[in-house]
């Protein structure tokens, strides 16, 4: 039931601006809403006649032993070529318009460097402060399962100010990883030898997962990280409150396999 | 179960082991391909079940059974499931099995154009199959997934890259030989009177799929040869530390690996067309637009590969451009779906097992197609790339539509191949269970990916209650699907001793039904050379050709 409600919420009407949890999620939801209703409409247009025909024209002995000899109808075939073409152009253009907003960070964004490695993330802030997260920090060694964010040490979380756009420059030290924040609906690969970019903004304080979404080996599924979204004051205190260069945490990361 | 069944003398399958190994007969080679495909389908399906059980609970369960190697074992099983299902089942059940057996029969030829090349293609494929079996040995586990993305595949953590490259190369040699053979056969060996507008849509589909193979496979082979030289011979195509570019690998790989999904699905479309027309007793609606749509899909399919790389760091303008071209594939695909629906209008529909599997396949393909739109709309893809939504989507298209098509085809041509009739009851039960199980499994998979954002290729995930619940629902679906597939397998094996089939049980005017014996004789046709009347058409039910020629 809860699942159904969230599905309805997902495709429901646009939310009031102050309710928007995160960007660029708001633009993403616009595209999803349009796609969802187009898809439902097409499904009904195809499924209803087919089910009707399936029932109405089933084989009945001595009544309709043979089907009618109809080879086609050029007019109707042109109609169902032209209309889908228009729908396709509309969907592509609508997605293009949202994509521009999803890809280009607003002015005055906070810029962060993220470097991915097997298997963890390094966040570097403008003043040189670094935060590391590793798979073996979020996994519970006793039960061999993930820790939920509330049990993770705050020193292993990347702090983010609420209500401010964050621009991330992403790269990788070894293989391809992918930086993914579900609540903001944004993904971008971290490619060795390249710098890729993405941006997001959280409006509500809280803790949000970052997952790796490009397969990267043994501990791919443990390559999680936690974003701690706090008020801007608290963020500034955290950023300046410690030494600029944080040392690696006590438990050492797994050694990345040498190439 | 008594399956020891002595074939009547003179049929295509009564032969000694030596004759099977050295055969150049397209029917025997088709069956060799088909049985190899089916065996690997079962193995890869079992791998899929292991994946499902592993994901049914957070944490990693396999280490409990296999110590520290557990996660690596999972990654190996994931690689095996993907690679084998795609290359051994989805491609070769059509291009090797169905196409070899049916194309010469449908165009009135006695064999394919190059029978020895055909045998060579099979034995290369067989060699690749043996190499795949070698990966079962611990230490030989390939853990780079079927895509084998560089630079991960150059890392020792990924398993034996050389083995992966050799498998792909042998497979590629087999595919290239097979596609050359099919194209030549269809172009030059059609019987008198069978023009391009009188080919079965299944033959058009194989023609288009073979063209894709011919143009695409070299790109795949090139990508893995560069991978091989990078890892073992010190070249630097993909290694960014030495000036290479990992995205080059992705471009080369997807230039083949996106079009190849049409190699997998176009023959399924062909089967849908054959079965719908036959079981409706009606010519296919809009034959010409159906045939053109097949070639349009094959052509446009080559302009869409970047949608696999929307978040890989390619320039923004490229993403938008390929967003449009990818969406455009929907137009010819839509034409096919609308024409199938229109074929049902004023029909006389027989509800037997092949027809049910075809209906199921089309409705599932419709869902798969509509859920393909968000992957093509680049703004949505930013939020769902590499999530379970993608996995659910392609399992609707390739897991369900394709397998439903293949099962439909197996039931439809079962009498032609074996001379026996399958069990309708068991077949229908198998269909309904498969429809229910697969929908439970893959619908919730897509839902989980889009709403909850679960990334793909995870053995492990945080113990979020909704995630666990959704994963367990999927496992129930997978179990129902397993039962359904087992029922069909039992049906096919048991029915080898079943009742004798009629000569043309579906009353089809298509050549493979109307002009050959059931089962097919060693020389294919009752009369040779084959000649058809001027007004003959494979879908001309209204003219009664199924009794006249």
Give a verbal description of the structure.
Chain A is α+β, with helices and mostly antiparallel strands and 259 residues long. Residues 243-259 of chain A have low confidence and may be disordered. Chain A contains five helices and 13 strands. Chain A starts with a helix and ends in an 18-residue tail after the last helix. Chain A has a six-stranded mixed beta sheet with strand order 1-11-8-2-3-4. Chain A has a five-stranded mixed beta sheet with strand order 7-13-12-9-10. In chain A, strands 5-6 form a two-stranded antiparallel sheet. In chain A, a hairpin with a 4-residue loop joins β5 (139-140) and β6 (145-146). In chain A, α2 (25-56) runs antiparallel to α3. Chain B has 549 residues and is mostly helical. Chain B is 66% helix and 1% strand. Chain B is built from 20 helices and two strands. Chain B has helices at residues 17-21, 26-55, 62-66, 70-107, 115-134, 161-188, 201-233, 246-257, 259-280, 287-300, 316-328, 330-344, 353-370, 373-376, 378-384, 388-418, 424-451, 465-494, 511-514, 545-548, and strands at 516-521, 524-525. In chain B, α5 (115-134) packs antiparallel against α6 (161-188) and α9 packs across α13. Chain B is globular and about 65 Å long. The two termini of chain B are 39 Å apart. The relative contact order of chain B is 0.10. The chains are: A alpha+beta (259), B mainly alpha (549).
């Amino acid at each position: 039931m809860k699942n159904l409600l969230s599905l309805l919420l997902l495709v429901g009407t646009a939310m009031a601006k102050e309710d928007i949890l995160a960007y660029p999620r708001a633009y993403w939801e616009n595209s999803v809403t349009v796609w969802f209703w187009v898809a439902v409409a097409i499904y009904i247009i195809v499924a209803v006649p087919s089910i009707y025909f399936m029932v109405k024209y089933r084989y009945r002995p001595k009544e309709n032993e043979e089907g009618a000899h109809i080879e086609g109808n050029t007019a109707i075939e042109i109609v169902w070529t032209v209309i889908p073409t228009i729908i396709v152009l509309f969907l592509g253009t609508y997605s293009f318009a949202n994509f521009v907003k999803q890809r280009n960070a607003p002015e005055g964004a906070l810029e962060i460097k993220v470097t991915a490695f097997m298997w963890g993330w390094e966040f570097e802030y403008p003043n040189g402060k670094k935060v590391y997260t590793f798979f073996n920090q979020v996994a519970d060694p006793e039960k061999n399962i993930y820790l939920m964010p509330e049990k993770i040490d705050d020193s292993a979380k990347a702090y983010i100010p609420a209500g401010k756009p964050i621009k991330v420059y992403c790269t990788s030290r070894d293989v391809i990883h992918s930086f993914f924040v579900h609540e903001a609906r944004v993904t971008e690969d971290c490619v060795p030898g390249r710098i890729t970019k993405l941006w997001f903004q959280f409006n509500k304080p809280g803790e949000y997962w970052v997952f790796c979404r490009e397969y990267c080996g043994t501990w791919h599924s443990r390559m999680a990280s936690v974003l701690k979204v706090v008020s801007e004051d608290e963020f500034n205190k955290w950023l300046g409150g410690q030494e600029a260069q944080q040392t690696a945490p006590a438990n050492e990361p797994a050694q990345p396999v040498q190439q | 179960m008594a399956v020891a069944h002595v074939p009547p003398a003179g049929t295509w399958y009564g032969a000694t082991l030596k004759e099977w190994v050295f055969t150049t007969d397209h029917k025997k080679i088709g069956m060799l391909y088909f049985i190899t495909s089916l065996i690997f389908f079962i193995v890869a399906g079992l791998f899929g079940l292991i994946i499902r059980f592993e994901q049914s609970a957070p944490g990693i369960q396999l280490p409990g059974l296999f110590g520290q190697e557990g996660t690596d074992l999972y990654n190996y099983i994931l690689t095996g499931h993907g690679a084998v299902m795609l290359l051994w089942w989805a491609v070769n059940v059509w291009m090797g099995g169905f196409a070899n057996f049916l194309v010469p029969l449908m165009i009135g030829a006695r064999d394919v154009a190059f029978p020895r090349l055909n045998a060579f293609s099979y034995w290369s494929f067989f060699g690749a199959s043996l190499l795949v079996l070698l990966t079962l040995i611990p230490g030989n586990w390939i853990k780079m997934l079927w895509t084998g993305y560089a630079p991960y595949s150059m890392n020792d953590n990924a398993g034996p890259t050389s083995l992966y490259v050799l498998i792909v190369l042998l497979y590629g040699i087999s595919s290239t030989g097979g596609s050359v053979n099919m194209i030549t056969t269809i172009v030059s060996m059609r019987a008198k009177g069978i023009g391009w507008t009188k080919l079965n849509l299944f033959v058009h589909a194989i023609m288009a799929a073979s063209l894709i193979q011919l143009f695409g496979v070299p790109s795949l082979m090139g990508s893995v040869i560069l991978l091989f030289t990078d890892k073992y011979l010190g070249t630097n195509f993909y290694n960014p530390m030495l000036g290479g570019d990992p995205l080059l690998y992705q471009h080369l790989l997807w230039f083949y690996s996106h079009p190849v999904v049409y190699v997998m699905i176009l023959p399924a479309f062909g089967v849908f067309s054959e079965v719908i027309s036959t079981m409706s007793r009606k010519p296919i609606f809009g034959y010409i637009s159906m045939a053109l749509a097949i070639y349009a899909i094959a052509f446009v399919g080559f302009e869409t590969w970047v949608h696999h790389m929307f978040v890989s760091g390619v320039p923004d303008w490229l993403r938008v451009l390929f967003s449009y071209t990818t969406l455009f594939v929907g137009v010819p695909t839509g034409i096919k779906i609308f024409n199938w629906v229109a074929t049902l209008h004023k029909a006389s529909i027989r509800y037997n097992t092949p027809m049910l599997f075809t209906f199921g396949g089309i409705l599932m393909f419709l869902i798969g197609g509509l859920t393909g739109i968000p992957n093509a709309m680049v703004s949505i893809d930013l939020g769902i790339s590499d999530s379970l939504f993608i996995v659910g989507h392609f399992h609707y298209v390739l897991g369900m539509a394709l397998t439903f098509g293949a099962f439909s085809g197996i039931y439809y041509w079962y009498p032609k191949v074996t001379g026996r009739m399958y069990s309708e009851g068991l077949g229908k039960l198998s269909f309904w269970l498969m429809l229910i199980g697969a929908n439970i499994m893959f619908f919730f998979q897509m839902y989980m990916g889009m709403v909850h954002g679960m990334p793909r290729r995870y053995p492990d995930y945080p113990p979020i209650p909704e995630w666990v619940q959704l994963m367990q629902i999927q496992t129930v679906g997978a179990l129902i699907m397993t039962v359904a597939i087992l029922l069909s397998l039992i049906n096919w094996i048991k029915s080898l001793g079943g009742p004798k089939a009629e000569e043309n049980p579906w009353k089809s005017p298509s050549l493979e039904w109307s002009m050959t014996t059931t089962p097919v004789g060693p020389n294919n046709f009752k009369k040779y050379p084959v000649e058809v009347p001027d007004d003959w058409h494979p879908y001309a039910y209204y003219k009664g050709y199924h009794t006249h020629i």
